[in-house]
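Sample entry (462 residues):
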Amino acid sequence: MTTERLQEFLNNGENIEVEFKTSQFELNRDVFESVCAFLNRKGGHLFLGIRNDGTVEGIMDSCLEDIASNLVNNANNPQKLNPPYYLSTELIEVEGKKIIYVVVPESSQVHSTNGKIFDRNRDGDFDITRQTEQVTQLYLRKQTTYSENRIYPFIELDDFRPDLFEKVRRLAKNERANHPWQNMTDEDLLRSAGLFRMDHFKGNSGFTLAAVLLFGKDEVIQSVLPHFRIDALLRVENTDRYDDRDDIRTNLLDAYTRLTDFVRKHLPDKFFQEGEQRISLRDRIFREVIGNLIIHREYINPFPAKLIIEKDRVVVENWNRPHNNGAIDPLNFSPYPKNPLIAKFFKEIGMVDELGSGVRNTFKYCGIYTTGAIPEFIEGDVFSTVIPLKGTTQMTTQMTTQMTTQMILDLLSKDPSLSRYKLALAIGNITEDGIKYHLEKLKEEGKIKRTGGTRGKWEIIN
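Predicted structure, serialized as tokens:
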């Protein structure tokens, strides 16, 4: 969140996609009514520490951690928000006061809080629990908007691959030792992941398209989506056709692995020291790129997804349900999941990270993997990702400076006492001297100041 973008929100005030809450000492009681309404409508931006009229009141320093923890924990508590939804918070300092910012995406499910269903209209949250027609329309809208929710009432457990359930349990356990999926039956796991649904408009129920794509046998997937495939192509020598190809027509878990193997087969690896850990730049970049291709694709459209390795770049394309059009700015964009259930599922098993981190991480590592390279993310009916394999110096200094400056400000907003050493360790591709240079520039520009001397802390100035 940039200062300019925040000021836009403050100037424009509350609306159907923006809500302010005071939360000076504790989380407002009605916060989850807004979260629920945003999830049910088309997503939105929630700010804690701001009055209804846009006045920045701020949150007490001693209460910040408790408020953020309560928000995140309750969002994952089915007694508070049902079904649960993963939310993350961002701490922002403005006018010397601290506020919490939360992006609430549109969900593919209908949510309730404390047993009530809320919808968003203009700048308010409205309880529609007893409004039968509105609830029916809400379920219908979710069903038609998100194709991952499409119900197939004749799909049975025998149509899924048993070995994939064991694989998922193993991966989930690696992420969390006491993950609840460990002790569930296959059917209970599918229900827990939101892959079994009731259509309240038509009155039928069954496993969803997301369930088929994640666990279905190959022949079942092809019967449900005959056009489904992902093309992985190498076009270096034979540019008219291809030098190598993997025609992938299997479940998304195996598709992820095969795409990763194809990239590893044809692209060189480059290792990089990030803090005290040695990492693979190639794997870091394409983990994000492949994850984006799989979880943000519109599967109903017959346009085939593609990953093409060329001599000087890698191009990835998939059909999309766009929220915006044009190139994505990594410093100022709001991520929206195109298949929220599939995205959440992949996050549970550790194959993707927090929503929105993929774009930022790709920008972060791409210029190191290929010196000076700047990736492109272009949103439209077809979502395109371009990863250059040849270096360039055009715009590199400006982009690198902007990214590094923003990361320093983000880190200092969370912990103002960070040293140059810890900042360099956290960012990963910069020396302590480089951090010192950027800190001095930020001081000259009046964006930060030092209080308390060598044992003091940094203060961000709006």
